[in-house]
Every structure is written in C-alpha cells, then in structure tokens.
Design brief:
Rossmann fold, five-stranded mixed β-sheet, 15 helices, BirA Bifunctional Protein, domain 2, elongated, 2 domains, alpha+beta, binds histidyl-adenosine monophosphate
Length: about 400
C-alpha cells in the first residue's frame, strides 16, 4: 500500500472540521482588523528564501525542499509565507504606490525537519502581513489579533516578547556578544561555534542545555537598545498592558528567521508537548528593501494550524439541513428531484438507495441533519413526504407542493 510521506498528514473527518472551523474563525478576525486575502505560489525561487529567511538559519541551511526544475531553475517549496507575500508586494509595485497594505493567508509550508508530535514536514499556517505602518501600535495590534483568535478558540497561552533592536543598536550588541562567545568558545557546541561567524545572535536560541547555561551571563540585547527601540518597546508593553494582554519578556527570543528587527514575539502553549510554539512573528522593516523594494516598514505573524487543532475547543455541533431518502426504489427519482430543488437554499444529504425507515433515521442522525424526510410507496401515490424533526422529535406528513 502506498502511504503518505513521513511528516505529511491527510486532513479529513474530525480533523477537517477543526481545520475549517479554525480557518473560518481566523479569517473573520483578520477581516475585522481590515486585512485582505492573498494567495502566493507554493513554489518559489530558492534565492527568495536565502535572501529573506537567511542562509545561516536552520530553515534555509538544513530544511528546504529544494530542487532544480525541468527549466534548470533552482526552486523550493516555501518553508514559510512572509517572503512570498513580500515578493508579491514588491512585484506588484505596491511599495512604490505607498499607503497601507494588509494581507492574510493560509496554506501549506514545507520544512524537512525530523518529524515528531507537533512537528511536520508539510504543515499549515495562518498568517498576516502588514506593510506601510511604522507605528508600534501596529505591532501591538498584531499581538492582540493573535490573542483574539486564541481566545475565540478557547486556547490558553503564554506570550513571550523581545526586541531585536535595529540597524543602529544591533551591530554594537552583536560585537559585544561575539566578545562574550569568544570567552566561552571552548565550551560551546559545534553549531554555536559555526553560528559565531554566520549569525552570532542565533546562539541565544541554542537548544543545548550547557550552551544555555553559559549564555545566561551573556550581554542582553534588551539592555543595549538605542533610544528609539527602547521607546517603542516600552510603549508596546504599555499598550498590551492597557489592553489586558499579559506577556513575559524573553531576552533569548531571537526567532528562527533572519528578517526581524525590533519587536519579536512568540505564543506558546504548555499543553501540547515540546513543540510548544503556536504562533510567532514580529517587525521586519528591512525585508522589502532586501527584496529590491522601496524601504517599507512591515510587521506580521503566523500561527501553526496543526498545533492549534490539538487545542481548539469546538462548539457543540448543531443539527443542520435535510436528509432525504426513499423507501421504495420507484421513489428514488423523485427524491433526487426534491433534493436538487431544496439545495438551492438548504444543505441536503440524499441517499440513492431505497431503505427501510429505521435505516434512514440512523443515516440522517449520522450526518447530523435536522430533518429526516422519507418517501415511501404511499407518499409517492399521495404526493406527500414524511418529515421528522430530529431536534424537536416531532413528525408530520406534508404535501410535496408545501415541502
Ligand atoms: P515561524 O515561527 O517559523 O514563523 O512559524 C510560525 C508557526 O508555524 C510556529 O509558531 C508553529 O506553530 C508553526 N510551525 C513551524 N514549523 C512547524 C512544523 N515543522 N510543524 C508544524 N508547525 C510548525 C514564520 O514562519 C514567520 N513567517 C512568521 C511571520 C509572519 N513573521 C512575520 N510575519
């Protein structure tokens, strides 16, 4: 039997209900915040992710589904959604048009990671990207939007917050961090030794516990922010507090992608095991420019749908629509005709096989129909239909012209 690839899951039955429930709910919230839908291709030039997510990141360095296509182009399946949205934004010349542009998207992302609970090779994100607003109110709004979605899904969380500084304060901090790393270089893991030259900030995110204990004494970025970054970070904390969003500061939160500056945040859940990040995002004011656009401030986030599906509290399913069946094979044509007419306005499930009443009632119950409607020999003769309201438990025989 041919099976799906490791780390690539089917979404069906109960999972599908959770999946669509989440997409519909998050879409509604995004629209309430003034965001518009955007769809970008699954396949992009590899250079797009090298230049945005960064060659030193694990995502680009180790996890890309990359190949040469039949036209000799170096392409890869998108590992995340932000880079493609920025590319589309620049390609459409919206950077030159100016103004504010806000998008939301959802779809598959691909990362060749070691699969485990909550970590897939093909997974789904719901994300938003906002272009053209350099106010920290927009950063706060992004965070409040995630909090809003999670609250509507009945999901508890911890919000971790950090500031990654900007081009004024980050280089100085990086130098002081490198000096510190050199002082403990003999003790750090091989990955961190490599990171020291490729992207020193990334050592702070190392999963090795010995490295982590060494970095406790490392200089903290939060203490080296320039005036503007410090002011924004203070304001961000005030806005969140004023709006009842609790947070904790995590000075080691650097995120796994290179494009961030200033605000970085992650929402984590303590109820889904080690892969606990359920959403992440931040500001990326330089990325439009890195992808050949006019400098444009931007901020966004993405949520991992599979991880959220484990946590969503689903509303009680209400009975809905009609189930229509025949008790006599001669009545099947009529049942199909009635179904087609009714489907103009209602949800209708139709059974093409003649069955006894008990079997029809069971089938109607299974598809959660509100009404079970059946035509037998007598009903066909009389031009009527038997209808049972499965919620009120009442039944009646109706003339077909009144059905
Ligand atoms: P990210 O933190 O890499 O950010 O991914 C966002 C979310 O996707 C994570 O918090 C997690 O829930 C989910 N996720 C990531 N990898 C996996 C995996 N292998 N299996 C299952 N779920 C996963 C980004 O992708 C950025 N583009 C977010 C962003 C948008 N920043 C600004 N705008």
């Amino acid at each position: 039997m041919i099976k799906s690839l490791r780390g690539m899951n089917d979404i069906l039955s109960e999972d599908y209900e959770r999946f669509t429930y989440f997409i519909n709910l998050a879409t509604k919230v995004a629209q309430n915040y003034g965001f518009h839908f955007i769809e970008t291709p699954l396949l992009e030039e590899t250079a797009l992710f090298k230049r945005s997510v960064g060659e030193s990141s694990d995502i680009v360095g180790k996890e890309m589904y990359q190949f040469i296509d039949k036209g000799e182009n170096d392409v890869c399946l998108r590992p995340e959604g932000t880079a493609g949205v920025v590319r589309a934004f620049v390609q459409k010349k919206l950077d030159k048009a100016g103004g504010i542009h806000r998008y939301f998207y959802h779809g598959s992302m691909f990362r060749y990671e070691r699969p485990q609970k909550g970590r897939l090779r093909q997974f789904h994100q719901f994300g938003v990207e906002s272009f053209g607003v350099d106010s920290v109110y927009e950063d706060a709004t992004m965070i409040m939007m995630v909090a809003d979605i999670l609250k509507k899904c009945g999901i508890g969380y911890r919000l971790q917050l950090n500031s990654l500084g900007d081009q004024n304060c980050m280089p100085q901090y990086r130098d002081s961090l490198v000096t510190y790393i050199e002082s403990v270089e003999d003790e750090i893991c091989e990955d961190c030794q490599r990171r020291k030259t490729t992207n020193p900030i990334r050592v702070l995110d190392c999963k090795n516990t010995h490295c982590q204990s060494l970095y406790e004494k490392a200089p903290k970025l939060i203490n080296s922010l320039c005036g503007a970054c410090e002011e924004d970070f203070t304001k961000l904390k005030t806005i969140l507090t004023d709006n009842g969003v609790e947070f904790e500061i995590d000075t080691n939160l650097v995120r796994g992608l290179d494009y961030y500056s200033k605000t970085a945040f992650e929402f984590v859940s303590d109820n889904i095991g080690s892969q606990s990040a359920i959403a992440g995002g931040g500001r990326y004011d330089r990325l439009v420019e890195f992808l050949d656009g006019r400098p444009t401030p931007a901020v966004g986030f993405a949520m991992g749908i599979e991880r959220l599906m484990e946590l969503i509290v689903m509303p009680k399913v209400k009975r809905e629509g009609y189930y229509i069946g025949a008790m006599d094979s001669d009545a099947v044509d009529l049942v199909v005709k009635l179904t087609q007419d009714k489907r103009a306005t209602e949800k209708v499930v139709c059974d093409y096989k003649a069955k006894n009443l008990k079997k029809h009632l069971n089938a109607a119950d299974k598809v959660n129909a509100k009404y079970c409607c059946v035509i037998g020999e007598n009903e066909k003769k009389d031009g009527t239909i038997w209808v049972k309201d499965l919620e009120a438990k009442s039944e009646e025989v109706i003339l077909l012209k009144d059905f």
